[in-house]
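Customer escalation, tier 2.

The customer says the design service returned an amino acid string that "doesn't look like it belongs to this structure." They asked us to rerun it and document both sides in this ticket. The original structure tokens are below, unchanged.
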């Protein structure tokens, strides 16, 4: 009886949390994309949107405090994937309130709040686990990518600055070109015209093919490993829940 009651409470809490997360995302969409429609229909004061925003911030804050207070290792929770996501969700919610205008820059992280759904979705949880298992590879990949971007930017700036001072006026333009070229996007808004710059572009494009392919392989391997482990855990759980045969002593 106690187990059924506990499961019911847990299910209710999970669905309530999902509803709050989706409500926060809904309010963010209304507040940023269609304020004119809202004001035209309900007037210049959209108080109900503010009420929902306040409510989600309070609930996210309470959830974070409770999880932090009840965590076996508070430091481990605070530095964990979900701990960081929970904290960002609170800060992003505060950034939407006028009293916390100094946090306005954090509003670019609003989409991060949707990652809280990973706690209640087995698919998203598996994805988060796979990313966590390959964090060393991700750090190494980011380091190599950053180094290549800097080398490409300095190289093309050296070749193109004098030939195209209006296009490559400073290193920031060169960094933009390096990112667009290395990721094989190639917007074409700025491009080299010197022989050295073209050779540099060819090298960067070839390196970019590896930059795009490498993380795809890493993610695919990590996902396959995480799915296999999940299936093994599910099989063990199912086997453990099977009724054991009774041996008659008669």
């Amino acid at each position: 009886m106690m187990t059924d009651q506990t499961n019911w409470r847990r299910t209710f809490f999970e669905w309530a949390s999902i509803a709050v997360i989706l409500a926060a995302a809904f309010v963010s969409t209304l507040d940023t994309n269609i304020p004119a429609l809202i004001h035209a229909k309900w007037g210049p004061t959209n108080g109900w949107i503010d009420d929902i925003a306040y409510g989600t911030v309070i609930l996210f804050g309470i959830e974070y405090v409770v999880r932090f207070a009840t965590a076996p290792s508070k430091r481990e929770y605070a530095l964990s994937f979900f701990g960081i996501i929970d904290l960002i969700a609170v800060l992003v919610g505060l950034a939407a309130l006028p009293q916390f205008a100094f946090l306005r820059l954090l509003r670019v992280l609003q989409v991060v709040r949707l990652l809280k759904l990973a706690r209640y979705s087995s698919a998203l949880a598996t994805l988060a686990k796979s990313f966590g298992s390959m964090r060393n590879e991700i750090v190494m990949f980011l380091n190599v990518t950053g180094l290549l971007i800097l080398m490409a930017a300095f190289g093309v700036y050296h070749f193109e600055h004098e030939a195209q001072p209006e296009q490559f006026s400073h290193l920031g333009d060169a960094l933009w070109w390096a990112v667009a070229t290395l990721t094989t996007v190639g917007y074409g808004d700025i491009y080299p015209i010197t022989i050295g710059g073209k050779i540099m572009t060819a090298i960067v494009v070839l390196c970019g093919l590896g930059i795009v392919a490498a993380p795809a392989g890493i993610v695919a391997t990590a996902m396959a490993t995480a799915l296999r482990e999940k299936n093994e855990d599910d099989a063990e759980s199912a086997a453990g829940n099977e009724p054991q045969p009774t041996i008659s002593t008669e």
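Tier 2 assessment: The sequence is consistent with the input. The chain has a mean pLDDT of 73. The chain is about 75% helix and 0% strand. Sent an explanation to the customer and offered a walkthrough call.
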